[in-house]
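Hey team,

Filing this mostly as a record. A colleague (T.K.) asked me to run one chain through the structure pipeline before their review meeting, and I want the input and output archived in the tracker in case anyone asks later how it was produced. No errors, nothing strange. Just documentation.

Input sequence:
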Amino acid sequence: MPQWASFAVFFSIVSSIYGTAHYYLYSWFVRLAEPSKKVRSLLRLFFIFLVASLPTAKFLGWYDFNVFSYLLALMASVWMGLVLYLFLFALGCDLLIALFKKFFSGPKVSSRRSLFNRRLLLAGIGGCVLMIGGLAVKEARDLQVTRLEVSLRGLPPELDGFSLVQVSDVHYGMLTENGRLSLIISRINELQPDVVVITGDLVDEGVSHMEEMSVPLSRLKSRQGIFAVTGNHEYYAGVDRAIAIMKGARIRVLRNEVAILNGGLQMVGIDDPTGSRRVGNPAPDFEKILARLDPQKPSILLYHQPIKFEEVASAGVDLQLSGHTHGGQLFPVRYISQMIYPRTPGLHQIGKSYLYVSRGAGTWGPPMRLLSPPELVYIRLRSQKTK
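Output structure:
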């Protein structure tokens, strides 16, 4: 799908869902605060500007990334996160008021006193939302390292202690650019892994300056290589462009293929299914791809979305590494995420096969996280007889 068509789809979704949320918030504020007609007119214009700012910033970023488009994207994205919590508070407030009116009959107060109380309530809610937003912005910057050991069938003794770092969902683009990417890469290099794996969504939607990420990417170090697979956002950004940038930084992108590392460790990467839906690529044939693996040797699958684990485990793959969900990114969105992807971030097991779902290192939409901090995953492999 061409970029202008993607923008049209994006704009229509934002206009329907995001616009409806803003209309509700505007009506809620007017009902409680009873502002003057002049203030109402200014507020309507301000809300229209806020609704339009995010798709406008995305559109500008596709063609020219500069200070203005960055600041517009930052403001619009932070506001998107704040709107979520304003909307939840507004719904909760209306529900409590309705219940109070139905089941309780308190003493009557003057209209002036009632207006004061409602405005005080609005101020309190606004303060709470700003505090939550500040905490969420801070958490999104707090990159953690999750450490674990995983036992692989057939891992030879000489590979016992082999280390890899998984990084997922960086979403390089308007808000996550070279400064943040350089920090992520520095943290990876400090861990001195044998292998680095990128499990999709290294890039966000297409931006004009995407090629600039090749400089920090070229500083990524490992002893036995850097491997990556496509995520859904590589297809939104332009998969050929994204892969060319990664290859230029000495990253091997595994596209439905197997790489054999020293000691016989098999690294298999499968394209995200978005490729078949978006650009018409044939859907990856899991059974055929996994049949190439030697069942006597250890294997690791890189696959962006945390799905198909039953099929992967039945094929004898020892470890699947995925991301995609961000752990919901913002509480309570994670509960919606769990309905779509039941396997939450963390380690899962079927028989002797493991799946690790990463929370990811970046953000999508609001540059915020709440109760789902970003992570790098440091995995030390162990042969079963040493466990």
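Quick notes for T.K.: Residues 3-139 form one domain. The chain has twelve helices and twelve strands.
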